[in-house]
Amino acid sequence: MIVHQYYLECLSHASYLVGDETSGTAVVIDPRRDVGEYVADAEELGLRITHVINTHLHADFLSGHHELSAATGAEMVFGKSAPVEFPAMLVADGSWIEMGHVRLQVLETPGHTPESICITAYEGPDATEPYCVFTGDTLFIGDVGRPDLLASVGVTADELGRMLYASLHTKLIPLPDEVLVYPAHGAGSACGKNLSTETMSTMRDQRALNYALQPMSEDDFVAIVTDGQPAAPPYFVYDAITNRKERALFDEQAEITAMSLLELDQALADGAVLIDTRQATDFAAGHLIGSVNVGLDGRFAEYAGSVVEPHSPIVLVCEEEAEREAVTRLARIGFDNVIGFLQQPHQVMAEHPERTEHASRLTVDQLQDIMANVPDVQLVDIRNPGELSVGVISPAKMLPLGSLMRQLGELDPSRPTVVYCAGGYRSSAGASLLRTHGFADVSDLLGGYAAWEAIAG
């Protein structure tokens, strides 16, 4: 059996190529949209991809089932409860996908979503116990899938939490100790709150170390797994719905339009959003007025999806030759509406200083001085609820970045405002978003709460 894990740090997303050398066949589980790597690896290994399996209708990224099916002819596979609107193989609990000496069995595991499934893999025709299990968003390393996402429209968090408890206790916890656990996400994903940086484990270790698998009542389980979850970015509902539909394919090699300043101005007049993908320090030193900073060096797609509406046309400001990476990462969350990138942005800003501005970034000492001398200052903490246990800067208002765009009305744009996060990456995005919505005096905190705690804590 061949098991190849593909891990995207920028989305904390794991997908898998599972192959059988005896039959020369393979499946891909929970693929991203840029599928070229799966196709190339299968070809190099002499494998033919016959099935593309989604463990559920993902909310945090747009799955590549359509792209992979178009590229290879693979059949698309979902759990029987998935409300997909295209031809697919819908599999029930106990169903098998035969691959020669490798056999895959479906476990229905509702809870994260109603249609969630896990896949156990058996190696050898006579194997009676699975070699590994692909757990999707049902079981993570150190956590379980949250049952409260809006992707599950019409089903409450309480109902899904009870489904998840049953799925874990009847389908996964009984698996043998040695079974390897391969989840769909790792640390940083908004699909859970306590995910490990490890990307695989064993059932023995998860039974021993995973807080959600410890002995507890169903009521206690529901309470603990729904408490302190991160704010879901606004695009999650869009992706969950789009994943069930027919849609356009992502072309990894499509030409990206280079735009002049005049063309940019026309696009902005027509409603486009300008995203500056440079690092926060470079953005602060000088950027085009009206741009939002989401650095390509971090969780770019997730936070772009937190500050831009899914259907908004987008123009990019990038370092040289970085536009392809930005477009691909946006496509992974279904944002296919990049209409171009600004050509030679540094030259444009140098030639048009009237179109540029600096961003205020404060040190801890400067923030302390402002808090002591500016009584009307407005502090905004854009961390997630689970991050607040280490402390807060009082009297900050808690508005996670994933909720900020929807809750701008809770802030006063006339007051001087300081935004902070954990380390200073998200705060640049949040502060720049406020500037585009009429907040005239906005700063963010260099180093975030970590810097504050080190100096002032």
Domain count, please report it: 3
The pLDDT mean sits at: 95
The helix content is: 25-40%
Tally of contiguous helical segments: 15
The number of strands is 24
Main β-sheet, spatial strand arrangement: 1-2-3-4-5-6
Q: Any idea of the CATH topology of the largest domain?
A: Metallo-beta-lactamase, Chain A
Quaternary organisation: single chain
> Termini separation (Å)?
52 Å
Bulk shape: globular
Structural class: alpha/beta
CATH superfamily of the largest domain: Ribonuclease Z/Hydroxyacylglutathione hydrolase-like
Quick tags:
Oxidized Rhodanese, domain 1, 15 helices, 3 domains, 457 residues, Metallo-beta-lactamase, Chain A, alpha/beta, six-stranded mixed beta sheet
Structure commentary:
The protein has helices spanning 36-44, 65-72, 157-172, 203-209, 218-226, 235-242, 261-269, 280-285, 300-307, 323-331, 345-351, 364-373, 401-404, 425-436, 448-455; strands at 2-8, 13-20, 25-29, 48-53, 75-79, 89-91, 96-99, 102-108, 117-123, 132-136, 180-183, 201-202, 258-259, 273-276, 287-288, 292-293, 314-317, 338-342, 356-357, 360-362, 378-381, 397-398, 417-420, 442-445. The chain starts with a strand and ends with a helix. Helix 3 (157-172) links the parallel strand 10 (132-136) and strand 11. It is an alpha/beta fold and 457 residues long. The strands form five sheets. It has a six-stranded mixed beta sheet with strand order 1-2-3-4-5-6, with helices on one face.
Could you outline the blueprint of secondary structure elements for this entry?
Layout: E1 2-8, E2 13-20, E3 25-29, H1 36-44, E4 48-53, H2 65-72, E5 75-79, E6 89-91, E7 96-99, E8 102-108, E9 117-123, E10 132-136, H3 157-172, E11 180-183, E12 201-202, H4 203-209, H5 218-226, H6 235-242, E13 258-259, H7 261-269, E14 273-276, H8 280-285, E15 287-288, E16 292-293, H9 300-307, E17 314-317, H10 323-331, E18 338-342, H11 345-351, E19 356-357, E20 360-362, H12 364-373, E21 378-381, E22 397-398, H13 401-404, E23 417-420, H14 425-436, E24 442-445, H15 448-455
Parallel strand pairs: 3-4, 4-5, 5-6, 10-11, 13-18, 14-16, 14-17, 17-18, 20-24, 21-22, 21-23, 23-24
Antiparallel strand pairs: 1-2, 2-3, 7-8, 8-9, 9-10, 11-12, 15-19
Helix pairs in contact: 3-5, 9-10
